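agent> Task received from the user: take the single chain below, predict its 3D structure, and emit structure tokens. No templates, no multimer pairing.
agent> Plan: (1) validate residues, (2) run structure prediction, (3) serialize to tokens, (4) report one or two observations.
agent> Step 1 OK, no nonstandard residues flagged.
tool_call: predict_structure(input=
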Amino acid sequence: MRHRKRKKRFECRTMGHRKALMRSLLSALFLHQKIKTTVARTKEVRRAADKLVTLGKQSTLHARRQAFEILQDKALVKRLFEKIAPAFEKRAGGYTRTIRISPRHGDGAEMAILELTELIAAPERGKIKPAGKPRQPLKEEVKPKEKREKEKAIPEKKEKKTSGFLEGLRKRFRTDR
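)
tool_result: status=success, residues=177
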């Protein structure tokens, strides 16, 4: 029996998989302010998102640590507490809205868009970066100006025109067209 069990199990997923799914959906919601997913996932993410925004409104160290335990991203927790939660300061609840859309083509699953009710300006590029290696400079950026100028100064070689049987075949089967 399921007495007093509120969370959905999402069928055959393990506990770790469910946590990872919720964490990624919540991160996407707070980063992009809008996500498109199934209705069942939307209902579960909505509950967790409302709790996190309420934590963000408290603005205490303990609340930050609780939010970090769920989101596992310092930059996202900072955005939640400094940008998202202050936008909902006058609101007592209802921080998200669900909009149902047409079913998914592949399997006919009911789809919905989950979005924050108060839209915040999009984050500036480079402020919130996904975890990973920093971008490596391109090879062109590494070359000094002198080397680039020398490469441009080299004259191109003229091709010799040949005639004959083989040249006719080369023209016919040329791949650079």
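agent> Step 4: summary for the user.
Residues 35 and 140 are 37 Å apart (CA to CA).
agent> Done.
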